[in-house]
Each structure stands twice: as C-alpha cells, then as structure tokens.
Amino acid sequence: MAHVPLVPIGTPREQAADPRTFDEQRQALGDLEAALASRRAAVHAGWGDTYVARVHAKGKLTARERVALLIDPGTRPFEVGTFVNDGLVFGDKLTSPAAGVVTAFCRVEGRWCMVIANDNTVASGSWWPRTPEKIERAQTMALRLRLPTIYLVDCSGLFLPEQSKSFPGATGAGHIFKMNSLLSANGVPQLAGVFGDCIAGGGYMPIISDRVYMTEQAYMVIAGAALIKGAKSQKLTSLDIGGPEVHVHLSGCADRRVPNDEVLIDCLRREVRKLPSSGADFYRGDAGAIDPLFPAHELCGLMPVDHRESYDSYQVLARLCDQSLFWELMPDAGEEMICGVGRVGGLYAGFIINRQGLVGDPEHPGARRPGGTLYRAGIAKISAFSRACDSDGLPIIWLQDISGFDIGVEAERQGLLAYGSNLIYTNSTNTTPMFTVLLRKASGAGYYAMAGLPYDPVVQLSTCLTRLSVMEGRTLAIATYNTKLDDNFEILAKDPDERRAIETGMRSVEQRIEADMDPYVAARQMDTDEIVGVSELRSYLCALVEMSYQYSGYRRVKNPRIWTMHDLAVLTGGIR
Asked: What positions does the domain CoA carboxyltransferase C-terminal occupy (predicted)?
C-alpha cells in the first residue's frame, strides 16, 4: 500500500504532433505570448522613465528594484495581479499600471513569501480603485498558504479623485487592515519596511506587522503635513510629525530606523532568516525535483490556439509532472475526465484535467460524444478524487478546458444537477490548497464545478488562450435572437431591412461577447489572478505546490502509506 504506482505517460514531440502542425501551433501561440511579454513590460515600467528618475533623485529605489534586491539571487518573483486595471483610464487621462502595487510570491532566504510593494512610480504609490482588493487578494493567498508576508510601503494614501471607488465598500481600503489582523491571528509572520510616504489609512498597514523598519526618509502619519497646516495652521513637515525620530524613539510604532532602502532590504532578509525553514524537503523524502522527460516548453506546440481543435491531455500532464510519471485513478469511469497523482518539483499533487476530442458514451455503447464536457460519471469521479485529495492533504491542480455540463432530457433524468451540486459542495468545503489553471475554454457551470475563482482556489491562472464566459459569442447571439430564428437557426424574416437588422444585431452580440472573453479583460477586473505563458505553467506550479508544503502543522498531510487514494484504486479497479 505504501507504493505510489507512478507510470510513464506521454510520447515524444515527434509522435505527439507532426512537425508542420507543431510549428504552426507554436508560432501562433508564440505571437500571443510575445504580446504578453510586451504588455507585462509596459506594466512593469509604471509611469515611465521620468518617474523612475524622480524616485532615484530622492535616493530611493523603485518598487520592483526593491523586490529584485529582496529575493534570493538566481530566483524570480511570481507576480499575481499584473494586469489589474489594465487599459482603464481615471480622472485626467491617468492610468494605474498593476493598480499601483506589486504583489508577488518571492523566495527569500529559502522561504516562499508574499511580497506587497507600493509602486512609487505611479502617483507616489497611491491606492486606486481595485488596489485594496488586489492587496487583500494577495493577503488571502498568504493566509491560505501561511506564507510570511512582507510589505514594502511607499504609499501616499488613497488616490483621492477616485476615493469613492476604493474607500467605503466591503472590500474597500479598510479591509486591508482586517486582513492584517487575520494574518496575525493565524500566526502568519508579517514584516514591514517603510521607505517613504505612509499616510492616512496606509499608516495602519505596517503597525500590525511583527517587525517595522523605517528609513530616514520614511514617515507614518494619520494626516500629512499639508492637512495639518490647513486644519491647525501649524508649519510642520511629515517627517516632523511621524518620521523615524518619532515612531522609533517616542511612540514605539516602529522597531528600527535604517539609513536607506538597501540596508532596510538587508534587514528584512535577516528577519526572514530567523523564521522556520521550509518543510518542503521533509515532504519530498528521498525524491528530488526532476524535470519532465518531455520538456515543458513543448506545450506551446501541442495546444491548438483554436479552442475548437482537440489535443491529447496526457501530453499536457507529461510536460507538467516530474519525469513524466503519473498515477491515474479510476481510468475506466468518466472517460471525459482524467484525474490522478504526480510529483511537481518532487512533491505530490493531484491533477484533474478535461479530456479533449471524442470519448465513449457508456449509455450508448459504440457511440461517441464530445470531451471537454461534464457527464454524470465524470462528475462523480472528480468529486470522489477531490475528496480523496482533501483527505490525504494533497494540493489539487485543476486544468480546465471545459465547454460546460451535458444538457438535454437525458442529462436531467440522470440528475446532473444533483451530481454537480455534490461536486460543488466538495470543492467548497475542501481545506487542501487548490490551484486552478484555465488552459483554454472555461465555460458555463463547468467553470464553477472545476474550482473556478468563485470556489476559492488559492490562485487561478489563465493563459493567452483562455476564454472565460457563460457561453460562446455565437451561441449567445442565437439565444438572444431565438424568437426570430427557425429550428436551424436561420433568420425567419423576409423583409431585407429586417433581416439586415437581425444580422447586424447578432454580429454585434457575438463580437461583444468575444471581446469580453479576452483574458486581459478578466485579469483587469480581477476575475483571474494572473496571465501566464503556457511554457511558464510548470515553473508556476512548482512554486505553488512547494508553497503548499512549506509551513507544516496547519493542515493534514498524510504519508503515502495511508492515502485514501489506495482505497479508491482498489474499489474501482483492483482485486476485490
């Protein structure tokens, strides 16, 4: 029972796709991912070189320079929320790249941390609409994984012309401080470095942290000098009111003062070094992190850009799992779904992925039906597997490419509503970390059932191919104009002008829905956490799975000898 029967899956690229198809698909996806890189670079530039120069002229570093100095050499930050507010314009033609704050998973002194850094090149690190929600989302990720949280504070408070959109609501700016409190209540270490402005509500963010450092340029105030001058006719600077002289030596609201950004970053690294080391190596046992037998970058040529074209889902798993080894559970039930266990970076994780193409129909032997759809057996299968992962403490990776649930008379008679509700209940009550990847289609209730963002995965990733919607644009156009169409969806009207009006209307609906399905739209409004390149998926998943195992003791993690998985294997396919 202790043996985890991982077996090889996948085939070499030459067998998985002919060279021409592979090259065409790689080129098409490569163009999309080149655009992704370009758009990322634009966000990372903040408000541009002029504002970077202003920061440097003050003897300070930019937010991303601080992050680069904080992380371990040779590692990279895994950003989330890069495209929040992307393309939106506020006030007098102002933009807020990344909502004016960097949130990223970073390895610091060998420990994964959540880093939250105000972008001081964007309106002096102000909080824009959605900035609070983005910070709170990062805090929630840190709480779920018990990751030390590091605040790099340089914030001039709310962007006041848009204050009504970020101040009062349930997820408004004040909720950040509740999240500070919940992190503290759950024993999650919080460290704060204050590098400059820390005004009004922002002044509360560092205080609950376990350690607070201030540079000589930093100050923390409920009200800045300008407001006090107006209210009390006093001539003061913000440093006079709440600089390190006040808060380190008089109020006790900060612990240490340091001369500059570089020294403060070094002090934060030293504090992280004092924390318990990661438990990931313990859970790896004797297994190391081994690359897949088939390189992860090959996914770029194996996944068609056109969502109507199919691919072999085993080839995806083979390029995500260590050594391309996988233990599939319940292979003879619910053929439209593949679920099983593999190692990622040397650590076990559960995988659930939609099978593409045509699959068998057990209700009609010999018949075929579309994959990428949830049928009764597949729903029951992944529900049981999800419960087993939760019982065993395995993080779950959901790989969505789904059109939705089966529909029709037979589906209703089979009780798909009840089976789907059972799956939703399972995913809603799981305590094991879940990570969701929207590979291509994420449609209808299938998006919900496979742990879409409303069902609280720790992180949801999209690719450049992701299409997130209730239904396709053409389908919705037909539904909208259904009363004006015959059974073959042809326009009934005979009058030429009326026909043109219906055609124009249907085309307009289809184009609007297609535009709304753009992954950048979802990322802009925080309907997904990050857009990543397909070739980056493995590295993101390695990081996320390791985070799941870093902090020991807060959740159940069974040793493989007593996994519920073994029971499932015996009951569904083994010797009885």
From this structure: 291-567
| Lookup result for tokens 């307009």 | 508
**Is 256 strand, coil or helix?**
strand
pLDDT at 575: 61
Q: Using CA atoms in the order 385, 426, 390, 106, what is the torsion angle rounded to 10 degrees? A: 110
Mean pLDDT for the stretch of residues 94-110:
97
Per the CB < 8 A criterion, the answer to whether 370 and 402 are in contact is: no
Q: Is the CB of residue 381 less than 8 Å from the CB of residue 350?
A: no
Are 458 and 433 in contact, with CB atoms under 8 Å apart?
yes
Q: What are the tens digits of pLDDT across the range 133-174?
A: 999 999 999 999 999 999 999 988 777 667 767 677 778 878
357: tokens are 């193409």
Annotate 335-373 with b (16+ C-beta within 10 A) or e (fewer): bbbbbbbbbbbbbbbbbbbbbbeebeeeeeeeeebebbb
Give the number of other Cβ atoms within 10 Å of residue 134's Cβ: 25
Residue 225 — very low, low, confident or very high, per pLDDT cuts 50/70/90?
low
Beta strands per DSSP E along 188-334: 190-198, 211-215, 256-258, 325-328
From the list 312, 290, 293, 292, the residue with the least C-alpha distance to 301 is 312
Residues 100 and 134: beta-carbon distance below 8 Å: no
pLDDT in tens, 441-497: 998 889 999 999 999 999 999 999 999 887 677 777 787 888 888 787 888 888 888
Say if CB 435 and CB 476 are below 8 A apart. no
How does pLDDT run across 504-536, given as a tens digit for each residue? 888 888 788 777 889 999 999 999 999 999 999
Q: Do 129 and 90 touch, CB atoms closer than 8 A?
A: yes
Distance CA 477, CA 134 (A): 33
Cβ proximity of 194 and 202 under 8 Å: no
Residue 186, pLDDT above cutoff 50: yes
Locate 144 and state its tokens. 């779920």
| CA diameter of the chain | 86
pLDDT tens by residue, 13-57:
999 999 999 999 999 999 999 999 999 999 999 999 999 999 999
| Residues in Cβ contact with 560 at an 8 Å cutoff, skipping those fewer than 6 apart | 2, 4, 348
DSSP 124: G
| Residue 399 φ then ψ, to 5° | -110, 100
